Amino acid sequence: MKNNFKQIVTTLLNEKIGNIINDQLDRLYAINRKYSNPKITMTPTVRWALLALRLYILFLVGILFYKFFTWP
Amino acid sequence: MNWLARLYYHYRRTLKAIKLFFIISGPGIIVMLADNDAGGITTYAATGAKYGYHLIWFLLLLLPVAYYVQEMTVRLGAVTKRGHAEAIFESFGSFWGWFSLLDLFLVDWLTLVTEFIGMTAALSIFHIPPLLTVIMVCLLMGFMVLRGRYWTWEKVALVFCALNAVYIPCAFLVKPSLSEIVHLGLVPHWPGGSTNDLFFLLMANIGTTIAPWMIFFQQSSVVDKGLLEKDIKFGQLDTLIGSAFTVLVAIFIVVVTGTVLRGVEINSAAQAIELLIENHNQYVGCLLAIGLFNAGLLGAICISLASSWAFGEVFGWAHSLNNRIKEAPWFYVCYFFTLISAGLVVLIPGAPLVLITLFVQVIAVTLLPSALVFLILLLNDEQVMGRYKNTLMQNVISWTIVITIVILSTLYALSALFPSMFN
Questions:
Q1: Residues of A in contact with B99 (CB under 8 A)
Q2: Domain co-membership, A44 together with A17
Q3: CA torsion angle for B366, B368, B370, B371 (degrees, to 10)?
Q4: How far apart (Å, rounded) are the C-alpha atoms in residues B132 and B77?
Q5: Are residues A1 and A32 in the same domain?
Q6: Cα–Cα distances in Å, from B12 out to B19, B24, B25, B101, B395?
Q7: Pairwise CA distance, residues B159 & B170, whole Å
């Protein structure tokens, strides 16, 4: 009786947690779909600025990795 | 008779404009004074202690820098009715959107930890244990938002802004020399030549003037308050007044430490306060401790909201301070999660608080350039901004400020990561 009750609670909880996670994942996919196409007018300035930002962030991530692996 | 009627008309019109300004003002003053957070107070205290009044002119230069950056968020928020996170997702796509959102969350959380470090250090001077400080702060910040009204939150936040005035009597109590302030402080020069120490402090001062969370916070705040395009002028004035106050507070702190702690190496504001209490003026020390606590609290109030607003905008949750908990549960979960978890970190014995403080500077630098660049690009998109887009002059000023900030903040982060690099 006690074991059955535990099993039911576990199943319900798993189901509930699973549903919450699935809902949130669906929401993430929906956000990605909603914003898949950038709406800003792609002028040369915008293109260059975005490229510069990508390179800058790659540089910073590289520095952080370097620091992480050479941390005393 | 005609002139009398005209005079009365102008009087009524001015009175109405002043009343309207008081209704609309708030986000600019709050964000600017919250910018002088616990980390900011430490930077100003260290600047005054190291270089006396010599860098006051440089602090004055930061007024237009802060104004021009934050003024853009007012226009963008009032025109698009969207927060900065949502605007980035919409205009630049999900890659840059997720990058900005997750980076903002990390920066905000780490900065919040530093605010708690400042608040617990300030109240420990009055022998209040850190646990009690954290509980008190969480309860107070809970009370501010639980009424479910933006206006209540804003009024309480403005009271804490007014508490920044404690630095004014402090500056008078230490009896500084006015002529020295004018002669040494207002004439631009590099004290002791352009050394690495000076460069590091200048970078730190710029770093405390513009933080990524400020851009996100003010734009969301403008949207939550419901400012319209016709209110932009008042929003700009609000930001200008806030910028003036923030620089004024910085100058008063520099005057205090520049007068009584000149030549002393300061590592934290709490250390400066302890030195003041032990060796100089007990009242000044106590007032500064209250100021440090208030600075941390004001920073915490704004930073925790910046993240919650950003997540609410992107995930489509109800995300207004005008919503009660039942109406916007995820917004408040996010708010309290960031707040309580950051508070708990400070209470962990042996937590790497110094490492966290260092990390804040580095992570903030990864977000700041993108947030600033996106801001300018959005302000130049005619489709989005219409007649409120940046003019040529505004673009020249904004790009100059942004490029300078990006270069200096990158060097600041590098010097924090590799201290020997600039020696």
A1: 57
A2: no
A3: 140
A4: 38
A5: yes
A6: 10, 18, 20, 45, 37
A7: 19
Residue type, B274: E
C-beta atoms of A27 and B370 within 8 A: no
Q: Looking at the partner chain, which of B96, B315, B369 has a beta carbon nearest the beta carbon of A27?
A: B315
Least CB-CB distance to A49: which of B373, B384, B418? B373
Task: Mark yes or no for CB contact A67/B418 under 8 Å.
Answer: yes
Domain ranges within chain B, ordered by starting residue: 27-422
- Measured between beta carbons, the chain A residues lying within 8 angstroms of B377 are 40, 45-46, 49
For residues A31 and A54, state if they share a domain: no
Candidates A35, A36, A47: best to mutate against B (most CBs of B within 10 A) is A35
A40, A41, A63 member nearest B417 (Cβ): A63
Domain interval for residue A56: 38-72
> How far A69 CA sits from the closest chain B CA (Å)?
13
Q: Give ipTM to 2 decimals.
A: 0.77
Q: What pLDDT tens digit does each residue of chain B (423 aa) get?
A: 688 888 888 888 888 878 777 777 778 888 888 888 888 888 888 888 888 888 999 999 989 989 999 999 999 999 999 999 999 999 999 999 999 999 889 888 988 998 998 899 889 888 999 999 999 999 998 888 887 688 888 888 889 888 888 888 888 888 888 888 888 888 888 887 767 778 778 877 887 888 888 999 999 888 888 888 888 998 899 999 999 999 999 999 999 988 888 888 777 788 888 888 887 778 888 888 999 999 999 999 888 888 999 999 888 888 888 888 888 888 899 999 999 999 998 888 877 776 777 677 667 777 788 888 999 999 998 888 888 999 999 999 999 988 888 888 788 778 777 777 766
CATH number belonging to the domain at B27-422, selected among 1.20.1740.10, 3.40.50.170, 1.20.58.1000, 3.40.50.970: 1.20.1740.10
Largest CA distance in chain B: 77
Long-range contacts from B13-17, C-beta under 8 angstroms, 24+ separation: none
Question: Chain A partners of B316 at a C-beta cutoff of 8 Å?
Answer: 27
Residue B277: how many CB atoms within 10 A of its CB? 17
